[in-house]
């Protein structure tokens, strides 16, 4: 069975994945999407106690295995403080700088599963008021989330259901250009996730089994915990991926 690459289907899947908010530590929704897809394709999988999904495609040769992996978590933030002004102070989740998200639209994810939208801006945004608008350090002390709500005090923000510790995700701004390029946040590592899912779907549709067994691990974090996969359980040792 010759593999027929469906570019449009892959791009649609990638768009769907990047638009599912999943900052590190808040990946349950995108993992649910992956489990649903595997179930639809009748692919055997299991979920580890730390949330990773391990899918197995049987092979004729059970002594040889190929392991492929990708992670689904992205850069994001958490609410560090609710200011008296009703604006939010952030703590970054991931190794990046505040200037990378200045002006970005975002979502605050509340405990009940609903969201409140906002914008990440420098406190000294108005250039004709703040002389240091251009030179002020883009740091946790100067950057803040301005909510799209009439909430101008800490009490009003808390009445919205927002609390310290809530996750904050960034709008991906996905765009597939006519020239064949894709521009988006969170392509690391959801582009790899989309490609692996397309491979899993292809293998699940094959009329004959693969020559060797394939293991696909969809991890919840880039710096993975140690995982013992089903394919290697008869062999000594723990395999890190």
Could you please describe the fold and organization of this structure?
It is built from four helices and twelve strands, in the order H-H-E-E-E-E-E-E-E-E-H-E-E-E-H-E. It has helices at 7-18, 28-40, 154-159, 187-204; strands at residues 44-47, 53-57, 59-71, 76-82, 88-93, 105-109, 115-122, 143-147, 167-170, 175-176, 182-183, 210-219. With 241 residues, the protein is α+β, with helices and mostly antiparallel strands. The two termini are 30 Å apart.
Number of strands: 12
Alpha carbon gyration radius: 21 Å
Number of helices: 4
User: For the largest beta sheet, what order do the strands appear in spatially?
Assistant: 5-4-9-6-7-8
Mean pLDDT: 89
Question: Structural class of the secondary structure composition?
Answer: alpha+beta
| CA(first)-CA(last) distance | 30 Å
Strand content: 25-35%
Key features of this structure:
12 strands; disordered C terminus; 241 residues
Tell me briefly what this model is.
The chain is an alpha+beta fold. The chain has helices at residues 7-18, 28-40, 154-159, 187-204; strands at residues 44-47, 53-57, 59-71, 76-82, 88-93, 105-109, 115-122, 143-147, 167-170, 175-176, 182-183, 210-219. Helices cover 20% and strands 29% of the residues.
Please outline the helices and strands.
Blueprint: H1 7-18, H2 28-40, E1 44-47, E2 53-57, E3 59-71, E4 76-82, E5 88-93, E6 105-109, E7 115-122, E8 143-147, H3 154-159, E9 167-170, E10 175-176, E11 182-183, H4 187-204, E12 210-219
Parallel strand pairs: 3-12
Antiparallel strand pairs: 1-2, 2-12, 4-5, 4-9, 6-7, 6-9, 7-8, 10-11
Helix pairs in contact: 1-4
């Amino acid at each position: 069975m010759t593999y027929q690459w469906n570019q449009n289907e892959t791009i649609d899947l990638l768009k769907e994945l990047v638009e599912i908010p999943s900052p590190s530590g808040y990946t349950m929704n995108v993992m649910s999407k992956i489990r649903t897809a595997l179930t639809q394709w009748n692919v055997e999988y299991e979920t580890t106690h730390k949330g990773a999904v391990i899918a197995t495609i049987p092979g004729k040769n059970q002594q040889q295995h190929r392991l492929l992996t990708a992670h689904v978590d992205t850069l994001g933030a958490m609410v560090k403080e609710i200011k008296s002004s009703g604006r939010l102070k952030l703590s970054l989740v991931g190794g990046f700088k505040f200037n990378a998200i200045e002006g970005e639209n975002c979502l605050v994810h509340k405990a009940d599963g609903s969201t409140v939208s906002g914008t990440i801006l420098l406190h000294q945004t108005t250039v004709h008021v703040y002389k240091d608008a251009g030179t002020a350090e883009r740091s946790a002390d100067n950057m803040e989330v301005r909510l799209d709500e009439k909430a101008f005090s800490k009490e009003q923000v808390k009445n919205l259901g927002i609390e310290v510790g809530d996750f904050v995700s960034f709008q991906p701004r996905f765009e597939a250009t006519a020239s064949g390029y894709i521009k988006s946040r969170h392509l690391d590592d959801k582009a790899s996730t989309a490609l692996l899912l397309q491979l899993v779907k292809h293998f699940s549709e094959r009329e004959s089994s693969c020559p060797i067994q394939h293991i696909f691990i969809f991890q919840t974090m880039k710096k993975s915990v140690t995982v013992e996969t089903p394919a290697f359980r008869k062999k000594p040792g723990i395999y890190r991926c």
